[in-house]
Amino acid sequence: MKRLQLLLKVSLAAMLIFFVCLPGFSYKVGGADLVKNGAGSRTKYMMKVYLATLYVPQELKGADAAQILEADKPMAIDMRITSGLITRDKFVTSIAEAFDQSAKAGYPCPDKQNYINLFGNIAIADGDTVSNRYDPARGLTVIFIPKGGQAKTLGTLKGLQTKKAFFGMFLSSKPIQDSLKKNLIGK
After folding, report:
1. Over the stretch 66-98, which tens digit does the pLDDT of each residue have?
2. Three-class SS of residue 45?
3. The pairing of beta strand 75-81 with beta strand 129-135
4. What predicted TM-score, i.e. pTM, was given to this entire model?
5. In terms of Cα–Cα distance, which of 36, 83, 71 is closest to 184?
6. What is the DSSP string of 61-79?
7. I want to staple 168 with a disulfide (CB 3.0 to 4.6 A). Which of 71, 172, 184, 186 is the partner?
């Protein structure tokens, strides 16, 4: 029995090391190495819609939501679609509502419509990823990665306020989902 427990512990440790070292668990934005801070599922009507993952510079790992939200440092939020019921129209409607929620928390978005327009001719399906990468020198770059396909940069929206409005959807005092906020900040 003890051998089985030891084998299980060693196997779990090996799997953890393997998954942490896989691409996608960290990457560079704006010349900074980002690390995974936390991840969680966005649910709506008891259905998982997407898995969000927050990446931050090492010095912000474990920081509270307000520090991450206010920081003018490279960071990213990836959203991997986990429902076959999500379409482009449902996605952009949800994003518009989330920007409105962020504005209620004090983070209005001057580029809300420009962000939504980036998805004009994009078909969104289960397994696709929308990566939102903030670089203080460039702005918030939106990259669409279809399941099994090539990444496509949809555009970049300039300004710290746009970054705060987008990240505010998840991290503000009025997030789109409290449990998702807690998971993203690792609490």
Report:
1. 999 999 999 999 999 999 889 999 999 999 999
2. coil
3. antiparallel
4. 0.84
5. 36
6. TT--HHHHHH--S-EEEEE
7. 172
Question: At 51, is the secondary structure helix, strand, or coil?
Answer: strand
Around 153, how many Cα atoms within 13 Å sit in the side-chain half-sphere? 6
In the chain, where are the structural domains located? 27-184
Q: Return the axis-axis angle of helices 160-171 and 88-104, rounded to nearest 10°.
A: 100
Among 182, 172, 41, which Cα is nearest to 98's?
Answer: 172
CATH class as words, domain 27-184: alpha beta
The 10 Å CB-count burial string (b at 16+, else e) for 15-35 is: eeeeeeeeeeeebebbebebb
